[in-house]
Amino acid sequence: MDSFRYYSPTEIVFGRQAQEKTGELIKKYNGSKVLIVYGSGSVVRSGLLDEVKKILEKDGILYVEHGGAKPNPRLDFAREGVKKAIEAGVDFVLAIGGGSAIDTGKAVAVGAANPKTDIWSFWMDEEVPKKALPVGVILTLAAAGSESSPSAVLTNTEIDRKKGLTSDLNRPRFGILNPELTFTLPKYPLACGITDIYMHTIERYFTKASGNEMTDEIAEGLMRNVIRNGKKAYRNPKDYQSMSEIMWSGSLSHNDLTGLGNGKDFAVHGIGHVLSALYDEAHGGTLSALWSSWAREVYQEDIDRFVQYGKRVFNIENENKEEAALEAIETTEQFFKSLDMPIRLTQLSKGKLEDEELRKMADISTFGDTKTLGVFCRIDAQKAYEIYKRANEEPGV
Description:
CATH class of the largest domain: Mainly Alpha
Pfam families: ADH_Fe_C, Fe-ADH
Shape: globular
Low-confidence stretches: none
Radius of gyration: 20 Å
Number of helices: 15
Keywords: Oxidoreductase
Protein name: Iron-containing alcohol dehydrogenase
CATH superfamily of the largest domain: Dehydroquinate synthase-like - alpha domain
Oligomer: single chain
């Protein structure tokens, strides 16, 4: 088994009415004045925000609100949160929502603890954060796994760039996971979330590492679980059992457990982020629209890995390795299609892109062809272009 370092300190409180523990947990981690970061939709309409505020008031915890986080979390909104947190003198950040609210909360926590440095400098790797305010999470969308991960993404709309920061400082102190809080989700965000969970593991699964049998077993089991319960949850979003499995899988999929010893590839995330930044596409949609085109471009790098994936996740039995690998890719597409997710760029909101746009995205994703993406197969600007080009065709072409 390959070497690894594993650190996952987030306390998970799971189950019905788990949000009632919010004040108790904030106090446990020495919070007394909180910045609440949230979106502008279901958290407000469902009454969850008011419920949480009453809990904080009952426990004598002061709070300031910062509402309005959007999908593909915005840098400017995070900067506003940093300013608000500093002016209010908060000592804790509570994010209520999905990945966008959580990543915004993480950015605010880093910025408020480092007031002399603009947060984008950390996201662009120009500075390394040394401290951050503690963050707690109440999860309402099983997707990004940000409630237990060291990652946070921001979108800089001034330069059309979406980028992530990975740091142990980003790991929340606690994550409150009540599957019932997801019951009001519209179908597409739910499907995007299920896709994101699956992709967080599959992008750890396809790397150059080998021989990590326990890690492979965990990853393969999680993917089977997401396929099985993802379909059930999509058909019936109020199925508590299925949503429980999806929500817990989301946390495990991005706390590094499913890639120990393997590392991460995340090339599809890298080329997908460009679509989110330029066209404001949903993150999960960019991943499903690109994955199979990436896979068909690179599977010959390690065809045995694709054969193993197909056999263990989809029970594909075929002695012809080429056929087995391609069937694994096609079957993954079928899973995405069962969730009504796009499997090509042409199925996203902007439709078929011009060749000039594809080349621009390839250039952006590789920082002007100065960096490569991924480890399973190094993706330079030309290969990124080839993947975009494949994905820009109609399914079946």
